[in-house]
Amino acid sequence: MTPSGNPYGKRKVAVAGVALSDCGRVDDATPYALHAQAARRALADCGLAREDIDGFASAGLGTLAPVEVAEYLGLRPTWVDSTSVGGSTWEVMAAHAADAIAAGHARAVLLVYGSTARADLKARRRTANLSFGARGPLQFEVPYGHTLIAKYAMAARRHMHRYGTTPEQLAEVAVQARANAATNPDALYRDPITVDEVLAGPVIADPFTKLHCCIRSDGGCAVLLVAEDLVPDLAVPPVWVLGSGTAVSHTTMSEWEDFTVSPAAVSGRLAFARSGVRPDEIEIAQLYDAFTYMTLVTLEDLGFCAKGEGGAFVGGGRLLRDGALPVNTDGGGLSACHPGMRGLFLLVEAVRQLRGTAGGGRQVHRPDGAGGSRPPRLAAVSGTGGWFCSSGTVVLGAG
């Protein structure tokens, strides 16, 4: 029974612990080790014990994911999730976990991820993935060389054609992400870049040059969500899950009705409605940014600006840590860390910012109305999977 007396949907849910594993260049660890390192650090962050965990969610590792990872961590969960929808996996899992905790099906759910994508490539244990395969509906696109990045590039070109968005505006996203990474000691790339440098780089898929694209790194992270009755036991302030939304769109490009609209238009609308928060109340946003266009179109689809106005919206330093709407304050996948399905990293950064513990000169400060400043109070986190195939959006509030 929940504290309210209703076992279904009434128990509040908080993010208790968050942590990163070693990130960037990690040549001497397995993905399992990164999972374990992140999990241990997340428990240490909030002061809870492994025995408190009764729910577990993971994807991307093991033949029987997440059973193998749970066994490696010494867990025997009674609630489990292995949803895998690309980069939005973790926001979707967080939504599932919050629903399970609210309904009384679990008390503490651990989400954990780890990948050595960069190290595996360097050691030639794997090759780069140009596509997701050639089975099912994808068989009708792969023979024509329609690579993963080409799909994003086509969408960006459509936005440019319809709304006049420019390469320079897309480059601004990369420049500001790098500026945010400058004071993040965990970021892989911290040296400043300019719009001209972004535009002058080698073309990967028109209109994207190299710096329009995410980096490849190693790394892992963990997030622990708990029921409200565990909050008094935490060593850190809680961050509350206020609302969430999920959506899927398409697999084949021919089934995508509008290249300029992502499924975040649906997941965001649901998340804001369920949380009772408006986009103009959000003080920071952590958005999936495998490519610069993703940031721009997600800002539009979440309602931070009108459709077609994203190019102008990202100008003037708006996305910087001290800008009007700080976005990807750790440097994002474009500069900080991108080991694969990056969505869980977005939740870690949002929680740290809302707690006011980001530190290292990278903490966001908002006016407190009395001439001083305070940490942000509301954050939107939105993950994207596939080539805008899926989306999960979570609204978080400071305790």
UniProtKB/TrEMBL annotation:
**Membrane-spanning intervals of the chain:** none
Thiolase C-terminal domain location: 245-397
The record ties this protein, via InterPro entries, to: Thiolase (IPR002155), Thiolase-like (IPR016039), Thiolase_C_2 (IPR055140)
Tree of life domain: Bacteria
Note the Pfam families from the entry. Thiolase_C_1 (PF22691)
Entries under PANTHER family matching the protein: ACETYL-COA C-ACETYLTRANSFERASE, NON-SPECIFIC LIPID-TRANSFER PROTEIN-LIKE 2
Q: What protein does this entry describe?
A: Acetyl-CoA acetyltransferase
Q: What species was this sequence derived from?
A: Streptomyces catenulae
Lineage of the species this protein comes from: Bacteria, Bacillati, Actinomycetota, Actinomycetes, Kitasatosporales
